[in-house]
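Troubleshooting: if your tokenizer reports a length mismatch, compare your output against this known-good record of 202 residues.
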Amino acid sequence: MFHKIGEPHGLPHDPFKSCVVPRPIGWISTLSADGIVNLAPYSFFNALAAEPPMVMFSTNGKQPFGPKDSLTNVEATGEFVCSMATWNLRDAMNRTSAPEVPEINEFDVAGLEMEPSVLVKPPRVKASPIHLECLYHTTVELPCDIEGGRNAVCIGRVIGVHIRDEVLTDGKVDIARIRPLARLGYQDYTVAETVFPMAMPK
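Known-good structure output:
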């Protein structure tokens, strides 16, 4: 099949999000200008560069199901933390995706314990095995087809990395042990648990 974006595709659901998979989940914690904690998962998330390390998350659409408070908070305070979402934390991660008013602390909603960061003010998800402490770099505004909505990419510079000792095997991050979550299309997720090496050709 082929369909032109903006025209009917004849399927029960829009297939686009199932065509770019799996997408890692950035579990973004922030503080508002008033010091209110926010935690939200983003499936439009990824690493952008390594020297220096940069990450991005993208917020899309219109409240209550579009842009969450994360971007507002990052732009106001200049900091955020990305905690890795894993199979063991899948239910808590899902609970933090609910559209809440800004005054609600999603850590409390999901029954998650906070852990202080070292270089930035937003807390980390204590149960998560990996955290990236980030400084805000820039926002890239994107076109938005939803009236009154906003599509924007938030880019941050990673300035600190936390890795639990128990998820290191021979000095390497043990992905099979961590079992990170990733988003597919529709309401579907997957988990990374099969790992295989494949050397780049010389």
